[in-house]
UniProtKB/TrEMBL annotation:
One of its GO terms (molecular function) is protein-N(PI)-phosphohistidine-sugar phosphotransferase activity. It comes from the Bacteria. Residues 107-477 form the PTS EIIC type-1 domain. The keyword Hydrolase does not apply. One of its GO terms (cellular component) is plasma membrane. PANTHER family: PHOSPHOTRANSFERASE SYSTEM TRANSPORT PROTEIN (PTHR30175), PTS SYSTEM TREHALOSE-SPECIFIC EIIBC COMPONENT (PTHR30175:SF4). Keywords: Cell membrane, Kinase, Membrane, Phosphotransferase system, Sugar transport, Transferase, Transmembrane, Transmembrane helix, Transport. This is PTS trehalose transporter subunit IIBC. The chain crosses the membrane at residues 106-129, 159-179, 188-207, 227-246, 258-282, 302-322, 402-422, 442-463. Residues 5-87 form the PTS EIIB type-1 domain.
Length: 477
């Protein structure tokens, strides 16, 4: 008998029994249930379990925070409940039954970008490191950078661009692959389509503005501009969706005997043609418009107000799942402006949530049982994983969550007011400073200090003054 047997039995009973579980899977810290009737789950009794750090509902899934031991608990749970293990893809599909239209759209967007995040984080760290050794004049009385005095570091700087270019310039390949993977169509066709958007044969997207003449494919009766879409997000999304749509429709009407030949041919060629004649230019203009609006808003005289609203509201967006939209905006800003001033605020919000938990550790320093939950939550939050902190501690008490929102707002105003820019998406916590452009690291450090100090102090003040009756809807969908 495992130490998880009794907790598994209790959770199954309080979740509504085996018949109420459509699918169940797990991630790094959470059990993720799709329930046939979410109302049957007794949330109060589940959260009262010693093993459970908190619960929340997001994108149609009822999620129970277990912590680092979730994998072992999951194995015991499915064994005891006599349930089949489900993949995350199966759970996501099943979860659609509990979503409205907006939630489905956000879930689709998350499914596209989530597989790309590890590469984007690595790419961001690499770009940050290249900037440190290549752009900061740290040697010979501040007149030369490291690569100017060391052949070794010059070689490292050049070599690392191989990876940085692969991640960001060829990003459309990853996007079109992710779309075909999500839509259940031929992933290799998605990769080929993405390559046609960034082929060396095309005029590089970064060189279009300064080009004296744009090359064309000349068909006699028509010409198509040979423009690449390096680092472009929206053209890749539109092209990938068209390819997936064409392939799925062709599968329905083409006989199986010839589908292997006909379907790829009549899906890929029209998709590439439409991408370069219609979707590419339209997507480019849409992306430029979105990035210009966001950047103009953040750098205008009212940028502080935009920053204050975003910094204050980002954590509640995490609860609803709407924060996944920011990935596309960040990537578009990077392609248009060579960096993003939106992502630093996200990293600061995560730090602020961790700082509120740090204050709760201090307040409850004599409570050993509480520290078993709060200490791992604070550490994971400072490293960019906020769910244990938000749902296990801050929303449980209410006032730490509010303190963290205010601290995030303060730090965001400092960041935007100082024009802080990140190279790319990075680790959304304390290590996030490595993704900040070198000339802005100093002010980002000041913003980080605010994100640490303000929530910590406010949490203690709120606790002592009784501001603990603030309630938040933990089941925001």
């Amino acid at each position: 008998m495992s130490k998880y047997t009794d907790p598994a039995k209790d959770l199954l009973e309080r979740i509504g029994g085996k018949e109420n579980v459509a699918t169940v899977t797990h991630c790094a810290t959470r059990m993720r249930f799709v329930l046939n009737d979410p109302k049957k789950a007794n949330v109060e009794e589940i959260e009262a379990m010693k093993l459970v750090k908190g619960t929340f509902t997001q994108v149609g899934q009822f999620q129970v925070i277990i912590g680092n031991e979730v994998s072992s608990f999951y194995n015991e749970f499915v064994k005891y409940a006599d349930l089949d293990s489900s993949s995350k893809e199966e759970a996501n599909v099943a979860a659609k039954q509990n979503m409205n239209f907006l939630q489905r759209m956000i879930a689709h967007l998350a499914d596209i970008f989530t597989p790309l995040i590890p590469a984007l984080v690595v790419g961001g760290l690499i770009l940050g490191f290249r900037n440190v050794i290549g752009d900061i004049k740290m040697l010979e009385d501040g007149t030369k950078s490291l690569i100017e005095v060391s052949q070794f570091w010059a070689g490292v700087h050049s070599f690392l661009w191989l990876i940085g270019e692969a991640v960001f310039h060829f990003l459309p390949v990853g996007i079109t692959w992710a779309i075909t993977k999500k839509m259940g169509t031929s992933q290799i066709l998605g990769i080929v389509l993405g390559i046609t958007l960034v082929s060396p044969q095309l005029l590089n997207a970064y060189g279009v503005a300064g080009a004296e003449e744009i090359p064309v494919w000349d068909f006699g009766f028509a010409q198509i501009e040979m423009i690449g879409y390096q680092a472009q997000v929206i053209p890749a999304i539109l092209a990938g969706l068209v390819l997936a749509f064409l392939e799925r429709k062709l599968r329905d009407i083409v006989p199986n005997a010839i589908s292997m030949i006909v379907v790829p041919f009549f899906a890929l060629i029209p998709a590439v043609l439409i991408a370069h004649t219609v979707l590419g230019p339209i997507g480019w203009n849409i992306g430029s418009f979105v990035s210009n609006v966001v950047y103009s808003g953040l750098t205008s005289s009212f940028g502080w107000l935009f920053a204050a609203i975003f910094g204050f509201a980002y954590a509640p967006l995490v609860i609803t799942g709407l924060h996944h939209m920011t990935n596309a905006i960040d990537l578009q800003l990077m392609s248009e402006l060579g960096g993003t001033n939106l992502w630093p605020m996200i990293a600061l919000s995560n730090i602020a949530q961790g700082s509120a938990v740090l204050a709760m550790i201090y307040i409850n320093r004599k409570n050993e049982e509480e520290k078993q939950v709060s200490i791992p939550a604070a550490v994971s939050c400072y490293l960019g994983v906020t769910e244990p902190a938000i749902f296990g501690i801050n929303l449980k008490y209410g006032f730490p969550f509010l303190a963290a929102m205010i601290g995030s707002m303060t730090a965001a105003v400092i960041s935007v007011g100082s024009n802080v820019m990140a190279n790319s998406i990075g680790v959304g916590g304390l290590p996030g400073i490595l993704s900040i452009q070198p000339q802005h690291m100093g002010m980002f450090a000041v913003a980080m200090a605010a994100a640490i100090v303000v929530p910590f102090i406010l949490t203690i003040v709120f606790a002592k003054t009784g501001v603990s009756k603030v309630t938040f809807n933990k089941k925001a969908a």
